[in-house]
Each structure stands twice: as C-alpha cells, then as structure tokens.
Amino acid sequence: MMGGHHAASGAAAWVAVTASTPIAFGWYPVSDVGVMTGALVCAGAALLPDADHHNGTISHSLPPVSEGVTKMVSTIAGGHRNATHSIVGVAVFTAIAWVMGLVTVRTDQFGEVLVGPGIMAVLLIAFAVRALKLTGQRRWWTWSLSVSLAAFVAVFAPEEWYWMPFCVGLGCAVHIVGDMLTTRGVPLLWPVRIRSPRWVRRHRWLPFDDMWSPRGNISVPLLGDAGSWREWALMTPVSAYAVLGVAWAMLDQMGFDTATAWSSATELVLSAGESLLGS
User: Fold this and answer.
1) Which of 142, 157, 161, 254 could disulfide-link 117, Cβ–Cβ 3.0 to 4.6 Å?
2) How far apart are CA 211 and CA 59, in angstroms?
3) For the chain, what is the domain count?
4) What is the pTM of this model?
C-alpha cells in the first residue's frame, strides 16, 4: 500500500476507534482534542513499519539523519517487510512509545511536561504531514506545524498524551493489515517463517497460492498490487471518512451542536428516500 494511503488509513482507524459520534465505534474514547491530534499522530504511526525502507516517506522526511536511521532499522529488521511488518514489530513500536511516555521534565510554570510523547508526536505528525502532502514540498512548514502542535498539547494539555502507546500500536497494526491486502503480503509471525509447501508452489492455479508465499508471507490480496485502482477505490472513501471525523471533532470543540445537526440531516435523507420510493 502507498505511503499516503497508509497515513489516511491510520487517521481513519483512530477516528473510528476513539470518536464518540454516530459515525464511529467509540471503543477507546478520547476528547475532541485527542481525536484531532491523535488522527495526525496515528497517521504518522501508520508509516512506522516502513522505517525499514530506504526509499520510503520516513527516509525522506529529515535527511540525512532519517536516511541513516532507516538504513539502521532495515539492517536490524532484515530488510524491507520483515521484522517491522509483524506482530513483534507492532509490540516493539508500542513499547518504544510507552517508554517515551516516561520521559518528563518538571517546570515551575507548567508543572510536569511530557517531553517524550511530545518529541514522538513531532516526528509522527511530520511523517503524516509529508505523506499526506499537506504542506507540499516545503519541509520547514512541515516541521513548524509538527513542533507547534506537539508543543501546544505538551504544555497546555499534557493529559492528552496518555493514549500515545495505543495510538502507535493501532497505526502500526493498520499498516500491516493494509500491506496484507496486497499481493506481497507480510511476515506476520516473524521470526517464524512457515514456507508454503512445494506442491502449493508447483500448482500455481490453486486459489490460496497467492495467500501463502514461498518466503512465508501471509496475504489476502483483495487490493492486488500496491497502488492499484482497487486500492484507490477503497482509500478514497476511507480518506473522506478521516477528514469528516476530524472536522466533526473540530466543530464539537468549537461548540457546535453536531449531534443535533447529524440527527436532522439523517431524518431529512430518510424522508427524501421514502418520498422517492413512494413515488
């Protein structure tokens, strides 16, 4: 799956899981500020498994440092789509986010400031902004926006960062699901690799041949190759859902009665549908 689509799917997943609105599940409710900031953070976290890719979004985000980091991660992970694209990878990234949450600084004016989550948020938001092309190619705009947003939350609403480990884990998991829907698949059980039997590889016509690669990758290739028209067809409404969810949280934070507006709009649509069917 393409980098921008990974980011959009991360933002959409965050909205679906955390927003307390009629269009979301609300399994892990957070504040409206948490929905808005978390959507960008989760979008960035959904790019983390590609930290093993020398030519990915993360590698190009802050060269030459980012390029060196991705080369190091790739070496440790065994190359692209290996360790970072597994259950172990999700657990490691989530653990890093939890450890970063312990890094704090006590100040006289603002009390205890969660520096670790703030730094992690800056990086993840920068990854998301770059992948979603929200600031074009202006790298200084990307970092200015990321630092400003993360610093604001860290100083004035530090309690918002309690969800950081969950956010990182969710974003990484969504990334792996997205790649699993493409033809290359993922080594979900890494470091254990169960290679497909020789008879499966010999009979290429078997319906599950594409789901079990010779390298042991697992795939449910509903989207075909990365960047296919099927991927675009799926991710267009998913991206729109993420934008709607963030806009909804923003309006709620500004004091708009979005619940009543949604109820009225729903009744209007249902009424119009009944009228059309009746005619």
Assistant:
1) 161
2) 29
3) 1
4) 0.88
